[in-house]
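Service request form, structural biology core

Requester: graduate student, group of Dr. S.
Request type: structure prediction, single chain
Budget code: on file
Notes: please return the result as structure tokens.

Sequence provided:
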Amino acid sequence: MIKTDPTQVEFEKWRRKNLGKVTSGLSRILNRLNVNQSAVVTGLLKAMRYSLLGGGKRIRPLLALAAAEAVGGETREALPVALAVEMIHAYSLVHDDLPAMDNDSLRRGRLTCHKLFGEATAILAGDALFTLAFETLANCGRKSLETCRRINLTLTILARAAGALGLVGGQALDLAMERRPAASPSIWPSVAEIRDMELRKTGELMAAALTGGAHLAGARPIELRRLRQIGLNLGLAFQIKDDLLNQAGDPARLGKAVGSDAVRGKATFPAVCGAIETERELNELTEKTLELTLFFKYQGRNLESLIVNLVDRQI
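Core staff response, request fulfilled:
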């Protein structure tokens, strides 16, 4: 008889419950925008909805909610930043898939936004999702002095993570590192350069989700510092896992083509270090990240489970 892990069962209940909160919150915001709009704007909102509500693991919003719990708060306190960070992530995927970037045709087993709605609409949909993220966060909550202070700092955290020193800068580095000839290893980026790129591209937004969610729940500075490091480590581990799956994953399960990184000559850990060394790096990062979660004891149980599920995933 197969025994069921009660911790995993409880986490799965928590995950499903909060996925529902995030999805309904995102849908509710889009529905409000759609009132009495022209056909053109309605078409733009349709592209936004397609990209924002088209599935996905909702990793970043779940991190924000788990972080609020880890510091003794409630998930409802962190919901505004959870919604905002998912909008930023969705925008980044829409733009990342464009012909000028990664030129992908599939995302989550469906046509990418630009393939369905056209490049111009996809660019505008991404722009609109990005700005909607900050509007969503700025308008949240009762405007007590303390709430305003927390919102203002969280807006700063998100803006920095999404900008030139974070996500956008990481994308720029990623593009600059592409197509360096594999036959000339001396001009391939170093491991340190790839780590910096991945930390900006993925780690900063995960760190912002954690620290933003915790900050809205009243976290102490020591807790915010710990969560930021967890987010950076997890972002790097997540991207390394993503690179390994792109190299040898199952396209039917991933919902997108595999081997695309090698075709484009993208600088990844597997390309530079090989699969064995990359797996070792992933395991070390995972251990360090899970050690950091011990600081939060029982309150951090869902955060710990979320991390384990992310690095063990096959999709």
